[in-house]
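Q: What structure does this chain adopt?
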Amino acid sequence: MKSRRVAFFVLTIILGIATGLAFGWLVMPPRAPVAAAMDKLRVDYQTDLVLMVAEFFQSNPDSLLALNQLSKLTPHDPLTLIGSSLAYGAEIGYQQQDLLLMENLLMGIDPEVYQQWLEESETN
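A:
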């Protein structure tokens, strides 16, 4: 009698798990967000993205490309984004090498290219 109850209990648990998995996979599968805005990222993720752009800028110093990449986070003022990312990175203890990369990005953006980029972004 006791072994029958244990077998029924185990069968019920297995049936519950199978039903839950089938429901989760077949009826309501998870979906990734379709139109997640980059400007809604937390400041630590934004700082990481600025660092990635700075690392790429180190090997390919193209100011226009860097500005276009940063404009995905803040379309109007990427230089302020770099400055605030530098401040945040220093505040939370980024490595000096990473802070130097972001500083080189800030200093490496050609002012003439920046003005040209601003004019183009205003017309779009």
